[in-house]
Amino acid sequence: MAHNKKFLRMIVELGCCLCLRNGHPDTPAEAHHVRNGSRRDTSPVIPLCFEHHRGATGVHNLGSRGFTECHGISEEELLDRLEFRK
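Below the sequence we write its predicted C-alpha cells.
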C-alpha cells in the first residue's frame, strides 16, 4: 500500500529522529524511505532533517553503511525507535 500525503506529513512533523536522538528535538524533517529491497512507495519511512537526509552527513550522500558508521546507528534502528509507525 502506498503512503498517502497525510501519513508522510505526520512522519515529517515528528522532526528528525537522529537529531532527537542527539538531544536536538523538533528539527524540521523530510521523509526518508528505508528501502532494503522494497519499493519506495511501500517502504517504511523515517523523518530526517536535510543534513541527515541529503546533506554531507546524510544517508543519500554516505550510503547506508557510511551513514551507520558516521552516526553509530542504522536507518533500521532509527525506524525501530520511532514511537509512531504506520
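The longest strand covers residues 30-33.
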